[in-house]
Amino acid sequence: MSRINLEPIAQTDGYPPVDTWHPDHCGDMDMVIKANGDWVHEGEVIKREKMVTLFSRILWREGDDYFLVTPGEKVRIQVEDAPFQIVRYEQSLDDQGRQVWRFFTKTNDVLNLGVDSDIKLFERADALLPYASVRHGMWASFHRNVFYQLIEQAVVVEAEDGMLVQLISAGKAYTIGTFHEM
Fold first, then answer.
1. Could you say which architecture CATH assigns to the domain 7-79?
2. Nearest Cα residue to 139 out of 37, 45, 69, 41
3. Which of 19, 42, 127, 140 lies 20 to 30 A from 80 at CA?
4. Ranges for the DUF1285 domain (predicted)?
5. 38-75 pLDDT, tens per residue?
6. Using one digit for the tens of pLDDT, what is the confidence trace for 123-139?
7. Residue closest to 83 by CA, chosen among 26, 160, 141
8. Rounded CA gap, 105 and 114, in Å?
9. Which residues sit opposite 11 in a β-bridge?
10. What is the CATH number of domain 84-179?
């Protein structure tokens, strides 16, 4: 069983500089981030929120692989869909009076759409689904309830190939869905 040493960063409240760490790959860990946002280690859901948040802060992506990294270790874990999941949102105004959508992930990340996060549509199971950028090339899916609530508040814009469902945030339009009129 592979374990990762968290001692060098255990006291950190923010985001450690994982992009500057380049340890050698140490092996694989029996850890999976499920599509529903649960973190599972050796078949058991990790229930300690602070532990999951800590792991999420040292998560790194290379191509299609995900790793937990410290300055001295790098272990591969599995991710079923996206490593993060947006579980709630709020609207606020920026200093220019523009609406900004703020998303909160299950791992306590705060994403400000149009400021430090964007939305991209990815094809999943024959559907285009929105994902929000998090950091280091990683993405967050939207919990189904949050997605449906956002759809209710979005604007519909006519486009050449159908209708776009969009959120406007920080003065930018983000497509969260498409449909064709029948």
1. Roll (3.10)
2. 37
3. 19
4. 16-82, 83-175
5. 999 999 999 999 999 999 999 999 999 999 999 999 99
6. 988 888 999 999 999 99
7. 141
8. 16
9. none
10. 2.30.270.10
